[in-house]
User: Fold these one by one.
Assistant:
Number 1:
Amino acid sequence: MSFGLNSLLKKILPKRLFYRALIIVAAPVIILQITISIVFFDSIWIKANKGMTRSLVSEIETLFDVYKSNENKNNIKQLTDIYKKNFDFVINIKTGEELPKTKSDRRFSPMDRSLRREMKNVFGSEDYWFDTVTYIELVDLRIQTENEIIQIFFPKDKIAPSSVRIFVLWLTVPSLLLIFIAIIFLKNQTRPLVKLSKAAERFGKGEIIDDLRPSGALEIRKATYEFDRMMKRINKHLSQRSEMLSGISHDLRTPLTRLKLQLAMMDKKDLAQKMTADIDEMEKMLNDYLQYAKSQSEESSTKIDIGNMLKEILKNYDKNRCELVSAESIVIEGRKNLIKRCLQNIVENGLAYGDKVLIEIKKSLNGVVIIVEDNGPGIPKYEYLNVFKPFYRIDKSRGLNKSGVGLGLSISQDIIKSHGGNISLSESRFKGLLVKIYLPF
């Protein structure tokens, strides 16, 4: 029971912190105002309305009794003038008329309901008629006698307290003012959290964050400060790793270059060629290590047209082997060189093990989907996760390239994940490998 209620509340309640906090602040104010309104309406306004209506009907009953007991027209004229002067009544005596057949009283109006109840107790249910709708400030009341109709006009404030409008005004305006102040206050309090969450999202995509400043409440300032320290430590670690591998690569290239020069001067050319091939492979391994270390490089994000980028990449390959099925003009924000390197890795992988590569671009709800298919030997399903591990190679079918060290897909995955996307593998329609890349806008 409680689990179902919790699930329902999670679906109904807003997801953002600002609106949840606004509900916490505004809900008690609204509930309190509704409760006060109900109590006032029930215990004060209705009772006051009932007492005023009862007093009015007593005055009308007195007028009716005096009218029935006095047949002198001069006396009746004097009586109506006195009522007009003292009670603000306008009385008309109509001969030969009947009460209107149509009902003009409102069924759910407290004023009409109270007047109807008191008139029924005194005059019955068929001998009177009243209208509270036609005139804004007046009530038209008609009472049936034996041969005549007594028509009485009296102000509505005689049966409805005028203070109710002022009460509703003073009840509503301060509540709206308090909620408005709460909205401004909550906006200022949640703004630093929103900035912190956006900074974390940008940092997760590999962007450089240099505009993060602690603000807001003490707890939020501390969280922002600690996040900034953590971000700097991570950037320092990545920078040190890149510098270390760059230094190792540079130090190793010098002796390798000397070895290549010495091999070029050897008399045994066959042996020299074999040793030169090994040295070339070692240089490529060093380049792969360096490329892997720099996959988190500090490159600024820019607007990228994925369709145009793929067209530029495919210019370097055989058109008969590469086909761009659809090239929509879809613009995302990211680090251009890294995304280009990732797509080049995937395309070269397909060309290394297949005769044809098909590339398709699709626009999704929140990003772009890039599908790269080839007709190569493919990868077993149980190896889909393993091939993303650094230095992992599949001996029986394929690695990223035939002379590589198993870093191509790892680098591609790092680049895609650093942009907030994901990459997955499956079997293509040609029984080869299908690489599906998703990048958010």
Number 2:
Amino acid sequence: MSERAQRAELLRHRNRSTFSRVYLLGGIGCLEFRTILSRFSKAALLLGFVVFGLFASVSAQAQQQSPVPGVSEAKAELKTSLGDLSTLYQSDVERLEKRHQQAKALFDDGLISRVEFEKDEKALADARAKVEAVAKQIAEANKPALILDATVDTLIGAASNLAWSTGNNRIDTLIRQYGTQYGVDPYLIYCLMSQESSFMSGATSYKGAQGLMQLMPGTAARYGVTNPYDVAQNIKGGTRYLKDLLVMFDGRVDLALAGYNAGEGAVMKYGNTVPPYQETRNYVKLILKRYGKTQPQKSTKGTS
């Protein structure tokens, strides 16, 4: 091969090597670019998820902080009623404490019997229990609402369908038994009993009301209750009385409750309306808040 031919061949070899190196470097650069782009896409996607999560969290908090229409007003009204009732019960306790001190002095001097003194002492204990019960209801009312997407009407309408229990199987059974027998909603009996005695069968008020449903001696006698502290007799007599009040006031639960608390005569005296007694009005309001109805379901069962 001539010298000129050798030089030409060497030049072609050099050009081929240079082209291979350029192609290789270009491939490597392209690969690195694709890797960087892939990593950037993943980072952007992750950032998007983080931002979306933060937005969803803020939205949920905003919904929790937004008051449901009507709930705030209902809770405020309930707290006011409970506060008024607490004040009344506290006044009773203070009055009974003074009377108890006087009774103790009379007992120490031998002027009254132990039975009279212990009866007075029990009335004071029951009054204090009522104050504690209302305090617990106030504490519950101060808790934030857990249900955010329901209206007050929805909550109230479901009230009678709630599972309820006094904590005593025998009392629960008797409430259902006599409620069915006399055509009175057992849940209404339960709500009334809770307000009357907090399910204490031995409760006695300073006015003389006795037992679970706080029957006055005259009412107990009217319905054949010989022992108002007997659970079955008390529930039966109280349920019959409540049934008669519902019939008397054409199924109006509010008026029946008012009659149970203040006497049917007081309701009729004020033109078949809830009497203007603060205790009675709070009593009716609190039970209705729990029960959730002013009109009972029509029932053909049960007789007085």
Number 3:
Amino acid sequence: MKRSTRGCGCAIAVVLLIGLAAGAVAWKFDLVNWWRAQRVPKPTGELQVHVLDVGPGEGDSILIISPTGKSVLIDAGDAGKGKVILDALKRYKIEQLDYFIATHPHPDHIGGADEVLNGIKVTRIVDNSVDLSTPAPSPTPTPKKGAKPAPTPRPAKNKIKSINAFFDEYKDAVSKSGAQFYERVEAGKKYDLGGGVIVTVLAPSEPLFTKDHMKAGGNDINANSIVLRLDYGDFSMLFMGDAEVQTETRLLSVGLNVKADVIKVGHHGSKYASSENFLKRVQPAAAIISDGEWNRYGHPAQSVLDRLKAMNAKLYRTDLQGEITLTTNGKRDSAKFYEIKTAKEAKEDIWTGREGFKDDSSRSGFIAYGDFGPPPKPKSGNPKPRK
């Protein structure tokens, strides 16, 4: 006897409609990210994040200490700032770093890395694998038979370092550091810092950005910065390195969860980062900018500060407030979910940007970052508006 198939088509259609409706609801209310959040380990103590003051030149260096004592140092400021960072590690009783993460090879981020790596033990070193090593000199050609050998050149007095000497010094320090692991970062990889603290790599991802991608502005090395997301219980924070708008657009295009309570603003508050679309997705309650009083690149840009202010984000700046310390217990329903303290009170308006004298964009021929002394003062009687 044949079974009746009448009504089967309607049943299948109903099932499909229910599935589509469930998918639409999940997308609208971000249930996928909600479900992922339920798998975050429960918090067990106090998490510390110290955005170190490596000014008055530009730079980044951020220390994370988990409730179990595991430590991460993200970047090491400019050349000469290694001692400042080592002193901070000593102050916070860090005898060995579990991770050193170099977000990208610019001197304001790894210029002090050689001194740090030579001054403290590190278990694991992570970078984005962009290689700026100085090319090896060409071998001296062999003279033809019977020809007089070329005279040995005299060593140059006061030999000038190559523009990428900072990277050679970084690589040399890595090789001598004794670190157990030296690895290229991978998007999606998670690092468990213990006590419920998870750090996830959001960027860079393949293919890496090139100068051809930066025609609208920004710098390709910056755009390939390591971007990290920290989750601890209900608390979340983004560490943007020097990521540019192009990086932000890619993060949004692949549907990554970038919503966070706090953001370490990308590229020191540059006009080439922190786009309106990106900030609307992050929805930060607080924003921290690591920048230098002497920087010549207009950091932070007034346009970025205006966008953060429009979002009612609480703003903190190392150039005006010194070292910035965040502590959290990871529990949103507690009396003190997270707290941010500054080393000093700002004597200037934190919502006023700085004037730029240089352009750190690939299209302007920018190669490597460096600040040498205070920027020139604007001519009296004819001040330039801040952008």
Number 4:
Amino acid sequence: MDSYWVQFKTPFLCFAGFSGVGKTTLLEKLILRFSADATRVGYYKHDAHRFSMDKQGKDTERCFKAGAGIIAINDPRHFAVVAHDAFKQQTITHALEQCDCILIEGYKKSPYDKIVFLDDKGQMPIPEDSENIKAVIHQGVPSANSALQVPQFHRDSIDEIYAFVRDLFRARSAPLFGGVFIGGQSKRMGRPKFSLTYNGTSEAERMAGLLQEFCEKTCFSSRSDLDTESLDHLQGIERINDEHIGMGPVGGLATLMGRYPDRAWLIVACDMPLLTRESFETIIRQRDPLRYGTCYVQKGRLGSEPMCAIYEPKFISPLYKAMSRRELSLKRIINELPFQEVGIAPDSRSHFMNANTPDEYEYARTRREQENEIE
């Protein structure tokens, strides 16, 4: 099995066994279940023999034989690609990374996580001490080896197998880090927005305190030239200076994800003073670690809210691709990808306002003081 699968950020699982044991039938049923649950599932077939996906004499077959490295064909409903091995890694990873999870048929000798099918006599297709066997599928005769300490399912127990595979994928969710973005310019305010205070506390400090409740680690994302001495008293918060200068939040997020590529990031801007603890509780509760991320959305033109959102590790790939074409809007990048969407209730829309002007700051400050008096 190709080594690049080690670095693949979309979770995958191999289904291995001899021919005729029901692998494809089971996978078909699992795909139906995942699809019914609105999960974008990918299927990858490893064929140990030569295969053909084209018809002799057709245009694509003739051009492929003539030496084209990659052939693509599409109609209004779908497309297909046939390519030489030299194109395999880029083609496979670019397509499959957009799925939420991947079911692989084959690769029984690979070192990766796998579910193994027994034959009708209960015999294993690989040694029982092979690494990363997560479960066994039998046809009515389970394995009699007591040393095989993994779940065993009858191949017709679709509900149980689906729940096991789904939970296995979700258990691979990355630990959550938090990032407070404090480096934005603020000429209209006359001072950095992170230093604006509400009820005697800067918003940067309040946001950091909230993220520390939910995240394994919390960081400040900042410009390198920003004076943050007023935040130095805060304990356990790492300051990470933007490495991608002049690219706004896109550059800041790319820096965070590049520093800790195996972590998911819950980010928040320091100029959203009406966000509440419940705002973070809700998005974490509804997080889908199989998507590129989870974000709040509003109806109408306002769309997604990129600055109170969770970005999963695999978001780093489309993020860097967007940067390479100077796409500096996180909202537009999100809109091109499958994100888990969390609706904003009409009476909560004001919680997501930005305090970008003195008037907006005054409104938010007054409202926060009133809420503090009620509490």
